[in-house]
Write a structure and sequence with these properties.
alpha/beta, two-stranded antiparallel sheet, 11 helices, globular, binds nicotinamide-adenine-dinucleotide
Length: about 350
């Protein structure tokens, strides 16, 4: 299987190197048969060839079995017409990665980790308020006059139905509960479609309970009663905001794992940004991207019926948990003094130890 690796900008290359080290070790100890090809995107690509994302890379991503993408520093890019293409946004659109899966789980002993938080945010990833990708042609944002700007939020029955399907499938494998989040009494038509589709999908999952909540009430409820929430089904922009809040409540934005998935393609891309304020210092927390890679292996395992890939994905998550359990091995965002490289190496060591244990007990 071919994995395309795109390190991105700022902390992207540092955390991608750590995550790739973990993936390469998992590949070796579980004999997964993965091949990795690394390519430049973002500022490095722009400086070399005048675009942050050449079409050839999109074609390679379409041809690959899966993609690992580091965070990209889009706010520093030139305008789109001058080569500053939004790399994650374009890849999500071109690969039709309609589901953004973002877990937030509090691990014992982590500073700021809110007890009983263990949720999975299933965020619609192709439409909503994301004006750079929510239209077939043109932009969802425009200026009819020089002092008026309009942003159009697009919600379709098709996208709402397929993301609801993903949420209920995950819920049926977890604690069998979905919270569908919108603001229906204000956004009556668009969130009306979203919730109507959710109702239709819910009818096919009689063992999964669900409730609807407004986004403002949800933000408070997630903080005050986190144990009530298992899978959170949510539209694009609300989901982006709520998932950052949820993962910060689990300890740090550096823990933000995320999988972008569609029918045929999947991309591991952490839920945080490129953190230019800490780039190049070997202090970024690579946990989010490492866990995203574990989720990617799980997705590949389910897609191809390969239990070894799912096992390796679970082993990566267990190795991360084991490293985070030791305060001395944590990165600075979690109060520790371990650097990006050393954290990645510690996860690799745990992965090897657990594989050896399995080999001995087999
Ligand atoms: P950010 O997520 O990059 O950073 C917010 C804060 O969290 C910063 O203080 C940062 O240091 C910290 N942080 C983030 N990731 C961390 C990690 N792994 N370890 C430790 N601390 C971490 O958000 P921002 O500053 O608003 O955005 C920076 C750039 O990232 C922007 O150009 C934005 O467009 C881009 N961005 C990219 C993606 C993506 O590639 N998927 C997503 C969001 C933002």
């Amino acid at each position: 299987m071919n994995l395309l690796v795109l390190p991105g900008d700022d902390i992207g290359p540092e955390i991608t190197a750590a995550a790739l080290g973990v993936l390469e070790r998992a590949n070796a100890v579980y004999s997964l048969g993965l091949d990795f090809v690394q390519r430049e995107v973002g500022v490095a690509s722009f400086q070399r060839i005048g675009t942050t994302l050449p079409e050839t890379i999109v074609e390679e991503a379409l041809a690959a079995d899966a993609v690992v993408l580091g965070p990209c520093g889009m706010t520093e890019y030139a305008p789109r017409e001058q080569g500053g293409v939004n790399v994650p946004g374009t890849i999500r659109k071109r690969l039709d990665l309609y589901a953004n899966i973002r877990p937030a789980r509090s691990r014992p002993g982590l500073p700021r980790a809110l007890p009983k938080l263990d949720c999975l945010i299933v965020r619609e990833n192709t439409e909503g308020f994301y004006s750079d990708r929510n239209m077939f042609l043109g932009s969802g944002e425009f200026m009819p006059t020089e002092d008026v700007a309009l942003s159009v939020r697009k919600i379709t029955a098709k996208a709402s139905k397929r993301i609801a399907q993903v949420a209920f499938e995950y819920a049926s494998r977890r604690r069998r509960n979905v919270t569908a989040v919108g603001k229906r009494h204000v956004l009556q038509l668009s969130d009306g479609i979203f919730i109507t589709q959710t109702e239709g999908v819910a009818a096919g999952f009689p063992n999964v309970t669900w409730r609807e909540m407004d986004i403002d009430a949800m933000a408070a409820d997630l903080y005050t009663r986190p144990e009530r929430h298992d899978v959170i089904l949510i539209t694009n922009m609300f989901g982006d905001v709520l998932s950052n809040l949820a993962v910060a409540m689990s300890g740090s934005l550096g823990l933000a794992a995320a999988l972008n998935a569609g029918e045929k393609h999947a991309v591991a891309n952490a839920g945080h940004g490129s953190a230019p304020d800490i780039a190049g210092k070997d202090i970024a927390n690579p946990t989010g991207l490492i866990l995203s890679c574990g989720m990617l292996l799980d997705w590949l395992g389910n897609r191809h019926g390969r239990a070894d890939l799912c096992d390796a994905g679970r082993a990566i998550e267990a190795a991360v948990d084991a490293v985070l359990a030791n305060p001395a091995q944590r990165t600075s965002d979690l109060g520790g003094g371990t650097g990006t490289r050393a954290f990645g190496a510690a996860v690799v060591t745990h992965l090897e130890k657990s594989a050896n244990r399995i080999a001995h007990t087999a």
